[in-house]
Structures are given as C-alpha cells and as structure tokens.
C-alpha cells in the first residue's frame, strides 16, 4: 500500500512552537518513526509552507492508495487545496489535525478540506497520524 503524508505550513515547527498545543515532539521525527514502524507500507512524506507546493504534491501523489493530509491553517482558507484533493484519482484521503480544532478558536471549526476527504481525525496529538494509518490498514 502506498500512503502519501502531506503536511502544510508551520508543521515543520511542531515540537518547538506552541508546545502547550502541539507538544514537545518533532513532527518530522515522529513521522520517520511511523514510517519505520509500518515498514510494509510504501510511505512518502512531504512538508511545505507554500500552498502551491502542497497542490503540486497532491497532484504528484494522486495515484497513491491513500493520502493523509494536515493542511495546517490552509485547512480553513484554501479552496484550491480542496479542489486539488477532489481532482485526484485517490479517494482514500484522510484529513488529520494534531490539536482538537473544535476546542480552539471559532475560525478553526471550518474546514474546506473535510468535504473532499473520506474522514477526519483530530485532537489526538501526533497519534492522529498513526490512527489515520491504522484506519487505512484495517
Ligand atoms: C493544525 C490546526 C490548524 O488550525 C493550525 O493552523 C495548524 C495545525 C493541527 O494539526 O492541529 O497549523 O492543522
């Protein structure tokens, strides 16, 4: 199974930025551990702070069996990312958030990405990513 993990803006700072919300663990390190743990899965991992680069990656990974995407703040603003997710062949797309976006500011409760996804997982810290992987493998 080919799973593409795509992370959006500021997620490269997880582990040091706003630790009270996102924890102290580096997302990059966590993802590498996840990739090692599920070694039968053919993972790709991409992070960018640039909206267009995220769209290019979604289009590039469109033939993957599944996409796990945390679009960061673009979740709440980007119709272009939602359109890209709808445009690709891959239909097993899971939206992931580290924090519980529903327990935070009002503007984080709206996701343009969610309607283009099979489902969403949020609020379980970095474990949200593993839960997404497990849902795809079960
Ligand atoms: C986030 C939630 C977003 O609202 C925020 O802008 C992020 C991180 C999360 O993983 O909890 O960048 O996507």
Question: Structural class, judged by helices and strands?
Answer: alpha/beta
How many structural domains? 1
Do you know the CATH architecture?
3-Layer(aba) Sandwich
Q: What is the first-to-last residue Cα distance?
A: 12 Å
What topology, given as strand order, has the largest sheet? 2-1-3-4-5
Please tally the β strands and state the result. Answer: 5
Beta-strand percentage? 15-25%
Ligand inventory reads:
1,3,4-trihydroxy-5-OXO-cyclohexanecarboxylic acid
Helix content: 25-40%
**Uncertain runs:** none
Number of helices: 5
Task: Give, in order, the helices and strands.
Answer: EHHEHEHEEH
- If you average the pLDDT, what whole number results? 98
Question: What general form does the structure show?
Answer: globular
Largest sheet: 5 strands, parallel
What is the CATH class?
Alpha Beta
- The CATH homologous superfamily is termed Dehydroquinase, class II
Q: What does the radius of gyration come to?
A: 14 Å
- Which fold name fills CATH's third level, the topology? Rossmann fold
């Amino acid at each position: 199974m080919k799973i593409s993990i795509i992370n959006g803006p500021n997620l490269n700072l997880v582990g040091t930025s706003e630790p009270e919300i996102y924890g102290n663990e580096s997302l990059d390190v966590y993802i590498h551990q996840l990739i090692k743990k599920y070694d039968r899965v053919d993972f790709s991992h991409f992070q960018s702070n640039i909206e267009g680069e995220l769209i290019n990656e979604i289009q590039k990974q469109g033939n993957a069996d599944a996409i796990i995407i945390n679009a960061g703040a673009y979740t709440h603003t980007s119709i272009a990312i939602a359109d890209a997710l709808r445009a690709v062949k891959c239909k097993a797309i899971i939206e992931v958030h580290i924090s519980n976006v529903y327990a935070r500011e009002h503007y984080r409760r709206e996701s343009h990405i969610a309607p283009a996804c099979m489902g969403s997982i949020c609020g379980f810290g970095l474990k949200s990513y593993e839960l997404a992987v497990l849902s795809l493998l079960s």
